[in-house]
Amino acid sequence: MTTEIKVPVLPESVADATIATWHVKAGDAVTRDQNLVEIETDKVVLEVVAPADGVISEILHEEGATVLGEQLIAHLSAGAAAAAPAAKAAPAAAAPAADAPAQDIKVPVLPESVADANIATWHVKVGEPVTRDQNLVDIETDKVVLEVVAPADGALVSISAEEGATVTAEEVIAQFVAGASAGAAPAAAEANAAEETDALSPSVRRLLAEKGIDASAVKGTGKGGRITKEDVEKHLKGGSAPVPAAKAEVSVPAVPAGERSEKRVPMTRLRKTIANRLLEAKNSTAMLTTFNEVNMKPIMDLRKQYQESFEKRHGIRLGFMSFYVKAVTEALKRYPEVNASIDGDDIVYHNYFDISIAVSTPRGLVTPVLKDTDTLGMAGIEGGIKSLALKGRDGKLSLDELQGGNFTITNGGVFGSLLSTPIINPPQSAILGMHKIQDRPMAVNGKVEILPMMYLALSYDHRIIDGKESVGFLVTVKEMLEDPTRLLLDV
Hints:
Keywords: Acyltransferase, Lipoyl, Transferase, Tricarboxylic acid cycle
Number of strands: 27
Domain Lipoyl-binding: 2-77, 102-177
Strand content: 25-35%
EC number: 2.3.1.61
GO molecular function: dihydrolipoyllysine-residue succinyltransferase activity
GO biological process, one term: L-lysine catabolic process to acetyl-CoA via saccharopine
Distance between the termini: 61 Å
């Protein structure tokens, strides 16, 4: 008999969640109420326990995967508790057989324009048992993060390129021995040293790294002393007791913890690429910015009226970005210069509409491309944007999803920006900045009304786009957003 293991019902305001930590793997024997997996939302970490004794027969979603409420994530074969002693005894078996041949773990073939890469994160340690297709290491290029998976059940016997190392295509970075999944446990000392870090959820690890905090300095209040995001935030606010400095050995007052400290970390490859491209845009284009403002009340009323039926029919919420993309696509049709680019002494006019969407990720700003937007409906646009945003957050964007794009939309309003001058994304010729929607007093037919207003900013390359075209483009976007029926009637 097989039992389905599902994501719990999520809190009302939470749309999705992330698989944080699997405490078991396929083939493991488990007992009733044993914690199988931790699922992380924006607010809480949920534990999923075994409904009965049995064996985990299949795991459908690995750590880092985005899941929905009540989504199936694993199968449990009940009534197989008899297998538990064998399963539990297995780790005591030591390492792989001495005569097992070692395999090279290599860097994948890199994209054509990429010369080298960096080892970003090793997800396993030497001696730690792994299963076939389990992610061993993330390798970061200028554009994407590549995953290297285990070729079979087994264990790493050596790692020759540590995190931060620069590597080239097909370079050997580790040695792997197959058939070691039942053992090869790391030495006790090594396991104890890494135990605290391994117990942290991905978001907590990321927050500790961003703030430069040693996990040992934070007091965990979660289950089993686990450190939660709230614990880290409390520590940052000074809620945790400061680690006593050797006060008795100095005659001057100790400097309060956290003051006048510095942290020096090397730029990631993505951050270097962003820096170089922004500098290139400033130095190689004749960039100007023109502004306008738009009354968002018509769209807000439309969303309020149709949100429920739209979500029920298409399975996705109706956001603002689909309106922005639709309005921009129509404006690009009317002003082909804005959809063009300069190549040497030529102007290349594109007869297709691929729009880059600026997405903020833990690794930095990326601009994945939503392709052929003129053929997409509102639901298709919303689904495409959500997919790109989730992949960007998880570092799963492919090179193809990051290449191309004729025009960029960036929305600083989600962070509270009221007005900005966005920088062009070369070789594109223009970028549209959306901003915070804020109630402001406006004159309407000789009377003052309070309306939800948003500033628009179009930065453009004056070498190819003249003032007339830039202003006309922005006015078209404004008109489309203030009267969304124009998008349907093409007027």
